[in-house]
Specification:
With about 150 residues, the protein is an alpha/beta fold. The protein has 9 helices and 7 strands; from the N terminus they run E-H-E-H-H-E-H-H-E-H-H-H-H-E-E-E. The strands form 2 sheets. A 5-stranded mixed beta sheet has the order 2-1-3-4-5, sandwiched between helices. About 30% of the residues are buried.
Length: about 150
């Protein structure tokens, strides 16, 4: 629900360049019954954006991270992921326009955090219920028991 920072079970972390692709993911999750917080829709005007994001991370149960070439270069997304990791949130990564090898080479610390804290299989279940257009854009990142990725 827009503007509601008290009840934020799922947060989608992304960079501005990925918003047009993150928006259908948000809508699909809401159609499935999830409450979703996404910055462009839910941030309140005239309120410090950093404090709003921190509050949303603190309140969320699940943290969906859109991993893209732009996101890998974002200091803000990096800080959001670290904050979610430190708060012991369920981490759900989705890949956009990037290979696992590039992701792992550019952000080995993200790979470490995600591989050990990620809710295994959850995104695959959600992914299968997404509209076909969203499935073409995003790929779920799922680790097996040997921590080898399956994308």
């Amino acid at each position: 629900m827009p503007g509601a920072s008290d009840d934020v079970p799922t947060l989608i972390s992304h960079v501005e360049e990925d918003y047009n692709e993150a928006k259908p993911l948000m809508r699909a999750l809401e159609r499935l019954g999830y409450d979703v917080w996404i910055f462009e829709r839910d941030a309140l005007p005239a309120v410090d954006y950093v404090s709003q994001i921190v509050s949303a991370i603190n309140a969320c149960e699940a943290f969906i991270l859109v991993i893209s070439p732009h996101a890998l270069s974002s200091v803000h997304v990096d800080k959001e992921l670290v904050a979610a990791y430190k708060k012991d949130k369920v981490l759900i990564p989705v890949m956009k326009e990037i290979s696992f090898a590039e992701f792992q080479a550019r952000k080995p610390n993200w790979d470490h955090m995600l591989g050990r804290r990620m809710q295994r299989g959850f995104m695959v279940v959600i992914y299968e219920r997404l509209p076909a257009g969203s499935r073409k854009v995003f790929k779920p990142l799922v680790y097996t028991r040997g921590e080898q990725p399956v994308v």
